[in-house]
Amino acid sequence: MGERVVLTHDGLQRMLKRLSYEILEKNPEHGELALIGIQRRGVFLARRIREFIREAEGLDVPFGVIDITLYRDDLTLASAAPVVHETNIPFDVSDKTLVLVDDVLFTGRTVRCALSEIMDFGRPRRIELCVLLDRGHRELPIRADFVGKNIPTSREELVDVMLQELDGKDEVVVRKKNVG
Fold first, then answer.
1. Residue 66, exposed/middle/buried by CB under 10 A (0-12, 13-18, 19+)?
2. pTM > 0.85: yes or no
């Protein structure tokens, strides 16, 4: 069916470790740094990055979770009964440097929703974006500050990110969409 594995467990771990160091290097004021994972897979990636930061610097970076479902501009098209997951930001976002974490950057619409939702919590000093994969095809002027890997894809392809926490294994596969 034309599947190609673009990332395995070991590659994913190395990539997340590298992204953790890049975040630390760009943000030397560690006391103002916080991570927010975008539901669903971004949450698990953010937790892993937080753990790498803890191991590297001994920092306990504040951590939050955001669900953008109710902020989607296509909510009525997406599903008659959308599944809403947890949003939990247990710290004041004001004057913080927030690093939003997600698995795949595609059109930019998910990030736009996340930005809108975060502003309902306060006014951060800065918001940065960390993504595991950037597949291109942007519809909005959004770019990531931290990118694990750029993977060129066509619109007829899907990028499946599988994580141990949800899927029982770490792997990224690019495959053709099922048509018909």
1. buried
2. yes
Q: Following DSSP, what letter does each residue of 134-149 receive, concatenated? A: E----SSS---SEEEE
- Please, are residues 93 and 65 in contact by the beta-carbon 8 Å criterion? no
Domain definitions of the chain by residue range = 4-74+83-176
pLDDT digits (tens, 9 = 90+) for 9-33: 999 999 999 999 999 999 988 889 9
Indicate the burial class of 68 (C-beta count within 10 angstroms; 0-12, 13-18, 19 or more).
Answer: buried
Q: What sign does the CA torsion over 43, 48, 52, 57 have?
A: positive
Does domain 4-74+83-176 fall under CATH 3.40.50.880? My reply is no
Distance between CA atoms of residues 172 and 163, nearest Å: 9
